[in-house]
Amino acid sequence: MNCRYFMLENQWNVIHLPEKPSGFGILILGDSNHFVEGSTSLWTQHKGRERLVDCLLEEGYTVFYSNLFGANWGSIKAFRLARQLYHLVMRQEILNRKIHLLAEGMGGLLALQLMEEMSEEIRSAAFLNPCLDFELYYKQAQKHPFFLKRLEKEYREAHNLTRSTTREAMENHVRLEYYQNEVPAKIWADVRNSSPYSVEHSKQYEKLKGEQGGNLEISFYLPEKQYLFSKALCSFYKSWEQEL
User: Fold this and answer.
1) CATH of 3-133+181-238 among 1.10.10.10, 1.10.3720.10, 3.40.50.1820, 3.20.20.210
2) Which Pfam families match (predicted)?
């Protein structure tokens, strides 16, 4: 695998280069367990994710992503770094300026921001069991004290908050209804609803997109097939590459 690791804002980043570039790029936004460190990452250590990246490279896509401060929960500093990474890659590689997104889990929160604030640079967005409605996730976490405590700690650290201001900030997190962009999207969701982020997230976003007249499709899969949707993913991306 031809890849290059580098530091940006004290965070590790990586860019995977295909043998036969198509000229299109994909920015991956990972879940809370996502990481890039030194010369490795979750997407090279986890076999399913590694196969998915390999398939994207075989199709000619340039794939890049960042550690993004770990469990960032859509923080402003993670958004700024993702935007900075995009501009750096655009300067260094010969790519179409409109990229695709691939967001897993918590990465969905950051994807929504990029789609809204950088809609002219985002060609399409694909989601895998995404967290899209933080209000919904927070309410679900409140039913489980252990998970709520961990979420509050991660959120506080990600957003540079104090203990006394954390819960108020979480309650006032940007609502899903705020996002009004027209970026085409597709969601792959676990048919057994075993993901930490219930399929209700996807259904809420589907409802919102429908009300806005937007383009969104949900596709369900069995858990054992989680990272075996590369052909369908590439087909989705290519369907939005007709207009350069």
Assistant:
1) 3.40.50.1820
2) Abhydrolase_1
Total Cβ atoms within 10 A of residue 145: 9
> Could you tell me the two tokens for 132?
């899209």
Is the pTM here over 0.85, yes or no? yes
**H helix or E strand, kind and range, residue 11:** strand 11-16
Residue carrying structure tokens 């991306």: 237
| Helix, strand, coil percentages in the chain from 3-state DSSP, rounded to 5 | 40, 20, 35
CB proximity list for 243: less than 8 A, separation 6 or greater: none
Nearest partner of 121 among 172, 156, 84, judged by Cα: 84
For 142-168, how does the pLDDT look when each residue is reduced to its tens digit (9 = 90+)?
Answer: 999 999 999 999 999 999 999 999 999
In the block, residue with structure tokens 């927070």: 138
pLDDT tens for 102-135 read 999 999 999 999 999 999 999 999 999 999 999 9
Q: Map out the domains of the chain as residue ranges.
A: 3-133+181-238
Q: Would you say 109 and 73 are in contact if contact means Cβ atoms under 8 Å apart?
A: yes
Q: What is the DSSP string of 95-155?
A: --SSEEEEEETTHHHHHHHHHHHTTTTEEEEEEES----HHHHHHHHTT-HHHHHHHHHHH
Exposure on the CB side of residue 220, measured as CA atoms within 13 A: 11
Whether 173 and 158 have beta carbons less than 8 Å apart is answered as: no
